[in-house]
Amino acid sequence: NDEKLILQGQTGFGAKMKYERNGGSYSFFTGMLTNSSQFSIADNSNNELISVFYDGQVGIGESSLSTSSPKLTVGGNMKVNSHITASGNISASGKLYGTDVYLGDDAEFRTTAGHLTIRPEEDLRLGTVSTDNILIGRLDTGVTTIQSKKGLLVSGSGHITASGNISGSAT
Length: 171
Hints:
With about 170 residues, the protein is an all-beta fold. The chain has strands spanning about 15-20, 25-30, 40-45, 50-55, 60, 70-75.
């Protein structure tokens, strides 16, 4: 026990320190601010800015954590100026923004229900390298329907081939 400074609070509460500037016009509190097993940093209005709970949970801008909360909870926007690496699932309830998406071998885009809609502002480019194969359709015995609501134009300098029947109808 090499403690150089021990702060002891009232019965049932932990201790806290106050850091004050400009004669008390602005201050921070740090320590065990409430009757709970957490260490907090709070502003001069006692709003918790950062809380570290006894079980290792950390809240930034969020003090109402429970045992089912993640290890890190951020109450507000977060900016990361480097990489984020995840070894598990990443979920979002809003939109994802970015420039490029890199996926590993045999990666999939899937929906959990409903349709998948891709809406580019300009061209939708699939297979932009000459060796790419673009496979559209099912891998089982089901039927794939390709539908265009305003006509379908297939163009290119090569041939169009089919290994099955091609049928058409006109009105």
